[in-house]
């Protein structure tokens, strides 16, 4: 079933009852709703869906040729968002920045989900043959650029539109446009860097030339910077040999590379130093924020029944209902009406108080969180990483339990940063996606352990120095990192368990 792709517009639908100023009104923001969803609250997740579904469905409508495929891709995206919600944290000080960060996270999740569905009709954990019609990608080249995207040349916009709003790899873009592969790589990179500069000016109050994460490397500037002409080639290996590894971050951010190319890039990164890797991943994050913002005009209202389908596929939620059920009529003697005891008013009052207490406990648990330090210390698989010396002075050490899915990091001897600077902690996911900020800290703050959950999803914790108030992505070289994957441990942790590196259990 073929349909027209939606046009881009600078006027996007309002996000339901939730807006960047929701916190000012005492209402939950998108980050609050997602956090509550992570605790299993389906009502909050419904509100989160209502506020964000137009952006997700709008992207699906742009990518897929069939409406039924777009609808299913939207449902699968929100099911993945439900699964990921317990592990996401948005700690920026500004409610507006948190709102923008949540939307970016969701759009990136949606784009990765949908491009994989387009190319493989499969998702890990969901199986294969997921699309009802599997009719392929929608036709491209029928959109007009928004004000932001109008700063691109027509050729750059055409390539970027096909890659992001069309879900194509850079090779598919080249084939569809009848343009050489190296030329398409250059157009995509240059397009991302041009709109990144506009994003920097609008939201960060600085020009791209001032930001070490986004020192642009568009084609003419490569020659000026290096004294040699180094253009893209037909294959990734040659590009890496030519010193264009950093430029590939923009193609990765667009999901415009194949799985095998991503694996080769991971091997390449493993051979680089921490400074290169940190800036490379930060460039991906910056590019994704830029592109999701630039293409916000794809928003389209989804069919009304999609929310029901999403909720129908979520795990059953019966927390607290058993308290009421236990006080209701007994079904022990089926068919014996006289054996059913009526519910007395005091029973309903008690049930209401119990449910209220449970709700308050859930809120307190959401705010305070579990005692992660104690949980890690008493876990049977807990281990302590090697002590890491930081380049600016001081040290840090990780304490991890994979079984509990929790970890904490302790610091010692940290110096006082220069005026206007703070320490910021970042978790880098194992899948190579954008880093997650754990917040900003002073040396006094870091006298207490820094805790986090979902440790199995992350490969390392990195410390950087950032401007006061924090950065959306790392903007300086790493001061040091804790390896959360290749655990080299030493000494017992406070719980007294041996700190042996976990080894696979032998069969038999």
Task: Provide the fold topology.
Elements: H1 30-38, H2 42-63, H3 67-84, H4 95-120, E1 122-123, E2 127-128, H5 154-165, H6 170-177, H7 181-204, H8 219-226, H9 236-241, H10 248-253, H11 259-270, H12 274-294, H13 306-313, H14 321-325, H15 345-368, H16 372-378, E3 383-384, E4 388-389, E5 395-401, E6 406-412, E7 421-429, E8 436-441, E9 450-453, E10 458-467, E11 480-483
Antiparallel strand pairs: 1-2, 3-5, 4-5, 5-6, 6-9, 7-8, 7-10, 10-11
Helix pairs in contact: 1-2, 2-3, 2-4, 3-4, 3-13, 4-12, 5-7, 6-7, 7-12
Can you characterise this structure?
The structure is a single chain. The chain has three domains: 23-297, no CATH class; 318-368, no CATH class; 376-483. A hairpin with a 6-residue loop joins β7 (421-429) and β8. Strands 3, 4, 5, 6 and 9 form a five-stranded antiparallel sheet that branches. The protein is built from 16 helices and eleven strands. By secondary structure, it is an alpha+beta fold. The radius of gyration is 25 Å and the shape is globular. Belongs to the sigma-70 factor family. ECF subfamily. It comes from Citricoccus nitrophenolicus. This is Anti-sigma factor. Residues 148-194 form the RNA polymerase sigma factor 70 region 4 type domain. Residues 1-21 are annotated as: Disordered.
Mean pLDDT comes to 78
Any idea what the shape is?
A: globular
H/E series: HHHHEEHHHHHHHHHHHHEEEEEEEEE
Number of domains: 3
How much of the polypeptide forms β-strand, as a percent range?
Answer: 5-15%
Helix content: 40-55%
Major sheet size, sense and barrel closure: 5 strands, antiparallel
Rg calculated over all Cα atoms: 25 Å
Strand count: 11
Structural class determined from secondary elements:
alpha+beta
Q: Could you name the ranges where pLDDT drops below 50 across 5 or more consecutive residues? A: 1-7, 9-21, 208-229, 318-347, 360-370, 488-508
